[in-house]
Amino acid sequence: MKLLLIDDHPLFSVGFAHALSQASSVEVLTAPTIKDGLDQAAAWPDLDIVLIDYRLGDTDGLAGLRCFGERFPMVARVLISGDEDPALALRARAAGASGFLGKSASIAALLAALQRVANGDVVFDDAALRIRAGATARQMEVLTLVAQGQPNKRIALELGIAERTVKLHVTALLETLGARNRTHLLVRAREQGLL
């Protein structure tokens, strides 16, 4: 398995890369930024997985997941974080991740999860995936931005879609979660563990 780890904390990235290579035959490259990671991925055509830390100095890992999805759609993308909140796992999935891993897991558990992703599986904690039937990845992105208080126009700009498409997603979310308005939608989403 060939893995690219993007993490701006040298102690973690070097230690993690060393631990993985000692525990298995994983080849690991590291990069401190999304830009550096994109450059390395371009030079490593048989890359299997990019593992992106959520908290990066220049951006966040969710944006990194989207960037890699656009440039390298055949490379599996996984978000890793010390913040093991189920809502973050949902946001990672909505951004195109094949998995979400917590930094508190053992090397053996992380390696097993990465091997599953390399084999084509998705790896998310079941508790994090309590998405009601019918909610798409794009709807989950819209929901996250609604929860941040963003108006439809700004959501449309951020996601690169039409404002009326945002309205359609919000309407679908209202129906899916049985909510009366945006405020009630956020209440229902929190009750369902989506936020």
From TrEMBL:
SUPFAM superfamilies: C-terminal effector domain of the bipartite response regulators, CheY-like. The modification 4-aspartylphosphate is found at D53. CDD domains: LuxR_C_like. One of its GO terms (molecular function) is DNA binding. Residues 122-193 form the HTH luxR-type domain. Residues 2-118 form the Response regulatory domain. Keywords: DNA-binding, Phosphoprotein. The keyword NADP does not apply. This is DNA-binding NarL/FixJ family response regulator.
